[in-house]
Amino acid sequence: MDRRQRKTRAAILGAFIGLLKEKSYGKITVQDIIDAADVGRTTFYTHFETKDDLLRSLCGEIFEHVFSHDLGKEKTHDFSEEHDTRARVTHILYHLQEHMDYLPGIVSGESGEVFMAFFKEHLKGLFAHAREAEGCAVPRDYIQNHMVCDFAETVRWWTRNARYTPEEISSFFFETTPLL
Amino acid sequence: MDRRQRKTRAAILGAFIGLLKEKSYGKITVQDIIDAADVGRTTFYTHFETKDDLLRSLCGEIFEHVFSHDLGKEKTHDFSEEHDTRARVTHILYHLQEHMDYLPGIVSGESGEVFMAFFKEHLKGLFAHAREAEGCAVPRDYIQNHMVCDFAETVRWWTRNARYTPEEISSFFFETTPLL
DNA sequence: TTTGTTACCGAACATCGTGTTCTCTTTTAT
DNA sequence: ATAAAAGAGAACACGATGTTCGGTAACAAA
Fold it and tell me: What is the CA B36 to C1' D26 distance in angstroms?
């Protein structure tokens, strides 16, 4: 890949992130982005199909980063299941914290749907072993959705209450679910 | 209020609901709505400020209906707290079911944010008494958000799995939370 | 019934953001 | 040195939003 391409792509993504610190995705225009990145309009559209494509690319990079060093992906650990999951959750929160400065601009509105969809997709594996409820037959689908939404919404809440540490958020999360 | 106004407003809202059964909010244009309602463009904009205003009006009507006969709003019942809440939840699900045919078009995408915000606002009172977690100090804010999101996301899941009854959904919900 | 008000129509319009297309220049690889 | 690829810049078409205006029809009160 050409050096220019890498620089341009980085400039666009960087400008996009910078703008997300100021205003939400919905209020950012392509014009804003290319002005901030100092690239031509044509250039933008050779790198990204649409504005939404840029958003999806950013989400992809975020979660590639956040889940890349996920301890639990290879099952080489000797922890109990719960301890393992707790460690992984805390770890993920730590990595998410690095993006905290621009997450508020992305987790709500139209972009929120995209962001949350990416997030939930990546989270599926994390809660695959969630306990089934005892008395009543709750469908596996429901449990899955419940856990994934619980955690994803917790993170969304965190972006509006960023004063808490990853350990605290992790505690809140595990204290309020009986399924892990 | 003029008879014409009532008819026109009803026509627009009705056409909007009809369109939501076919496609999602984001794909519906004002042109679609005024064609389906058979009203002039000007008329639309005298009744609703913007397309989003129409959406908010619809959400308002939905939740006014769904929460209007909420048993628990006047505290005249002698049930235990949990039983009371369970009855109210089931009752709400029954009323939501009446809108099930067009809810899928509204709970996702850009409109999803608006819909969920309305829903969560109305739900706040329902879970005000949710138990605090025992061991650790989980903030009241967190509990509140947790419960409200849990239920709202449960409903969203239901719109994609409408084969379940209100009682079943209610069971799933209460089986997976330790806070009620 | 007349009169004044209000709702509605419809067609045109301005505006804005998106995504495309063109020509021309600069950079890179070989 | 030269061909291929990347970018600049300006113009363009398009679609959707929301507004404006002059004319028509319904309503309500005299």
Answer: 22
